[in-house]
Design goal:
446 residues, 2 domains, four-stranded mixed β-sheet, two-stranded antiparallel sheet, 8% strand, MmgE/PrpD_sf, MmgE_PrpD, lyase activity, MmgE/PrpD family protein, MmgE/PrpD_sf_2
């Protein structure tokens, strides 16, 4: 295998804002904006509050989103990373089989404040990191994810290291060192999906990625072939040592992974594998009364069912991975929203009773496709199908107004939040992040 680690580091460290096409810049800014919105919505979740009470934290220059507190960049990166993933509302990517932005944006903002970086530097560093992690996933998946690793942290920590190294203007060799240090902290199990440990993974990816870049800058050493080494990342996490590195390197700076297959902004705050089932169930809502339903069948891809067959979720986090529960909620309400994961909504007897009628069956069609069948007491059989969930693919993107609407679902509308959205969508024009982080802080009491 070629010198994958160093080759990828050379490409990433050489990326400049002028290399980014207008669509790449636009989609990157949407993803950054969406990630910050998810963090602000998640900052008061139990997973964040409990972590803040336990994890060590030192004062510093970096903002804890949604608060007036400022911490050391590593501490802010970790807490903000947990917050951004706490609701499972942040973006995702099919090749990565995980969440690309949440592993990078919180740490990047924390580091950018400490280094007084510009918006253009942040935007370019974000793209470098996202491209690196998705392209690495391209040659390691599906074996990597199917072994049980959580790609959001295992690929994400390397993307975070690349983004941080780019922001710090490290050389290709130091960038490769940061990647190799980060590779030694890549860990996270899909078994912990539906628990607080899943967002903790995102916090670790941010902290460890930034830490790896800081260590590399300070002169720390690591083998510059940690990805492709015979005892390295690809061999340890996958099925084979003999992996073609071409797809990770070819078309860099031209064929952006964030555009194709793209970064998918979520319409619903739950596991993306279930979104097409929700869409299909919502299509049927107007044609039936839930009291008439005798039986429900949901068909999803067999590879997806392993993690989303949870007939009796015990709490809101667990419910985010329950196809049965979310299909029932969509049949009742026509959608799934943030409030639906509060305890009283998860344990709503009407939803619980309807979810008990849901049977899951595997299919071999498109990876995202969801098909819902409903049999009614009057003998009718209705069905609906969704092939691509909104926002999941470039063929069915969220419009800019829909992205703004989701932002304000997460951050209640106000002059300050509107200004924040508009500023983030012009990120590259800001000489520093100070005006943006000022808008992220809560308004002073009147």
């Amino acid at each position: 295998m070629s010198a994958l680690t160093l080759d990828l580091a050379r490409l990433a460290s050489g990326l400049r804002l002028c290399d980014l096409s207008d669509p790449a810049q636009h989609w990157a800014k949407r993803a950054i904006t969406d990630t910050l919105a998810c963090a602000l919505a998640g900052v008061n979740e139990p997973a964040v509050r409990l972590a803040v009470g336990v994890l060590p934290a030192s004062p510093g220059p970096s903002l804890v989103f949604g608060t007036g507190h400022r911490l050391h960049p590593l501490d802010a990166a970790q807490i903000n990373g947990i917050a951004a993933h706490a609701l499972d509302f942040d973006d995702c990517n099919l090749e990565m089989d995980g969440h690309p932005s949440v592993s990078i944006v919180p740490g990047l903002f924390a580091l950018a404040e400490a280094r007084n970086a510009s918006g253009a530097q942040v935007l370019t560093a974000y793209v470098a990191g996202v491209e690196a992690e998705i392209r690495l996933a391209r040659i390691a998946n599906p074996a990597h994810a199917e072994r049980g690793w959580h790609p959001t942290v295992t690929f994400g920590v390397i993307g975070a290291a690349v983004a941080a190294a780019h922001l710090m203007r490290l050389s290709p060799e130091h960038t490769a060192t940061a990647m190799s240090i980060a590779a030694s902290s890549a860990a996270g199990l899909r078994a912990n999906s539906g628990t607080m440990t899943k967002p903790f993974h995102a916090g670790q990816a941010n902290r460890n990625g930034v830490q790896a870049a800081l260590l590399a800058e300070a002169g720390y050493t690591a083998r510059l072939s940690a990805l492709e080494h015979k005892f390295g990342f690809l061999r340890a996490f996958g099925d084979s040592f003999d992996v073609d590195p071409g797809p990770a390197l070819d078309g860099w700076g031209k064929d952006f992974a964030l555009l194709s297959p793209g970064i998918a902004i979520k319409q619903y705050p739950c596991c993306a594998f279930i979104h097409c089932a929700i869409d299909a169930a919502a299509q049927l809502r107007g044609d039936i009364k839930t009291a008439q339903i005798e039986r429900i069948e949901v068909a999803l891809h067999h590879k997806r069912l392993k993690n989303i067959d949870r007939p009796m979720p015990k709490d809101g986090l667990d419910a985010k991975f329950s196809t049965q529960h979310l299909t029932a909620r969509a049949l009742i309400d026509g959608t799934v929203g943030l409030d639906d994961f509060h305890p009283e909504r998860v344990l709503d007897p009407t939803v619980v009773a309807l979810a008990a009628k849901v049977a899951l069956v595997p299919h071999e069609e498109g990876l995202s496709m969801g098909l819902v069948h409903v049999w009614l007491a009057d003998g009718r059989h209705l069905s609906a199908e969704a092939t691509v969930a909104m926002g999941r693919d470039p063929s069915n993107p969220m419009t800019q107004s829909q992205v703004r609407a989701k932002f304000h679902d997460c951050v209640p509308p106000s002059d300050q939040s509107t200004a924040l959205f508009d500023a983030l969508m012009q990120l590259e024009t800001f000489p520093s992040l100070a005006p943006i982080t000022a808008a992220i802080c809560p308004p002073p009491p009147k």
